[in-house]
Amino acid sequence: MEEKLLIFVQGKRVAVKYYSDDWPTNNAKLAFEKFVFTKTVKTNARTEAEVTLLENNIIIYKFVQDLHFFVTGGEDENELILASVLQGFFDAVTLLLRSNVDKREALENLDLILLCLDEIVDGGMILETNGPLIAEKVTSHSLDADAPLSEQVMQLCFDLVCVWEAIEPNATYFMKATA
User: Fold this and answer.
1) Rounded distance, CA 114 to CA 89, Å?
2) Which of 14, 50, 76, 121 could in theory staple to 45 by disulfide, Cβ–Cβ 3.0 to 4.6 A?
3) What is the CATH number of the domain that holds 94?
4) Where is the AP complex mu/sigma subunit domain (predicted)?
């Protein structure tokens, strides 16, 4: 399989995984992503996933609020399998984000989204397409059950600050503890 799993916000990459060397350089990958985004942005893939063929690539995509989800594969790939990968990914993300699938939640939980990508496809091999099962695997990996609760909370806070630092490098962060 040579799928690519992509998520965009307003034409900018949020998360992406490539499983083939069709685009060997970062510039080639960015050009492909821009091409896919510009060709699909004006469509209405809000309720159901859409399928299109662009430059010998099957593109399965779905838009939710300000996020655009894509799964792509070669023209010889099975569209139904690619669609099940997209649906499983979308279902898992929806569960992990507690049905609040938007830009802010996606960026705050980027680590969980990247873990979803890893649970779905590994080295081009589809491992799982069941959204609830993917979400369950991700949540079991996201926290160290043996760590004290205080360490788990601090790790989550640190992860959140790291994500926001990537978005807004000059922001000021503070935490307030309440009794």
Assistant:
1) 11
2) 50
3) 3.30.450.60
4) 6-140
Side-chain-side CA neighbours of 99 within 13 Å: the count stands at 0
Which run of H or of E encompasses 118? helix 110-120
Is residue 163 in a domain?
no
**Residues whose CB falls within 8 Å of the CB of residue 141, separated by 6 or more in sequence, listed in order:** 115
- Token pair recorded at residue 64: 């939710």
Q: How many domains does the chain contain in total?
A: 1
* Helix (H) or strand (E) segment spanning residue 163: helix 149-167
Helix 79-96 and helix 131-142, axial crossing angle in degrees, nearest 10: 50
pLDDT in tens, 89-147: 999 998 888 887 888 888 888 888 888 888 888 877 888 999 889 988 888 766 555 66
pTM: 0.72
Cβ within 8 Å of residue 143, ≥6 positions away:
152, 155, 156
Q: Helix, strand or coil for residue 61?
A: strand
